[in-house]
Amino acid sequence: MKTLVLLALVGLGAQLVDGSLGMAYGVTSTTLLLMIGTNPAAASATVHLAEIGTTLASGAAHWRFGNVDWRVVARIGVPGAVGAFAGATFLSWLSTEVAGPLMSVLLLGLGLYVLVRFTFRGLRTDRLGQPLRKRFLTPLGLVAGFMDATGGGGWGPVGTPAILASGRLEPRKVIGSIDTSEFFVAVAASLGFLVGLGSAGVNLAWAGALLVGGLIAAPIAAWIVRLVPPRVLGSAVGGFIVLINTRTLLGTDLVSLGATGSAVVYALLVTVWLAAIAYSVRALRRERAAVAAADGPTAVNAPVA
């Protein structure tokens, strides 16, 4: 019972982050399932089954708040589903000894990308309104869907920054569109795992607990997406993912540093993580000060979303 309550809280927290940042539900949830010893393919399958419900609820909430561009959803969701099915069947065929370290490496890479991307670059908004082309969204969907299924997460970490970097769609619609299109990815990945693992590969109780937490958080996240600074949240989430998956890799035969070496690595990672968050906060304050100065004296006393 304690495990189910913990998983529900994980689902709630992960969905709050995912719904407001456009990424990290699968990465966070899968990382924590791996920590408690779940088979990599089963962990991804369990998370994707829960995501069928959470992405549906999140998409509906984002649609309600006007955060969805349906053209983007259609153009990226279908190829994303194809990539996710392929990735799920591929992961199902791998042995646990190979899949475990592979998934941790993929998650670590995604975490590093999120950390660096949001800490140093923030969000690009100088090309808003220009159309996103199908020749860009189709291959992006295929790659992001495949990464999502094999890494237990990746749809948001790959898709959201790529579209944000284009600067052609406002951030809240990028997040809402990615969250909504992830429903197709979750369904396709779940079907792929069903083919590869069968129903025995999924822990229904754990999926249900993750789902309950996610359903509670989905409408809240869709509302706060206008309020939470994505730059700071991205640095915090990226650092967390890097730290947890480094811990997983240090516990395998691939990396053996001993207790002292591992402690040094953890200390360095935590220091870098805290420094990244501090840098993001300072950068955000500078950006807001610059905007206030550009807008004139009336903007100084205006509330900042």
TrEMBL record:
Entry's transmembrane regions: 72-94, 100-120, 183-200, 206-225, 232-250, 256-279
Lineage top rank: taxon: Bacteria
InterPro entries: TM_pro_TauE-like (IPR002781), TSUP/Inactive_protease-like (IPR051598)
Residue ranges that the Swiss-Prot or TrEMBL entry lists as coiled coil: none
Record keywords, A-Z: Cell membrane, Membrane, Transmembrane, Transmembrane helix
Family: Belongs to the 4-toluene sulfonate uptake permease (TSUP) (TC 2.A.102) family.
Listed name of the protein: Probable membrane transporter protein
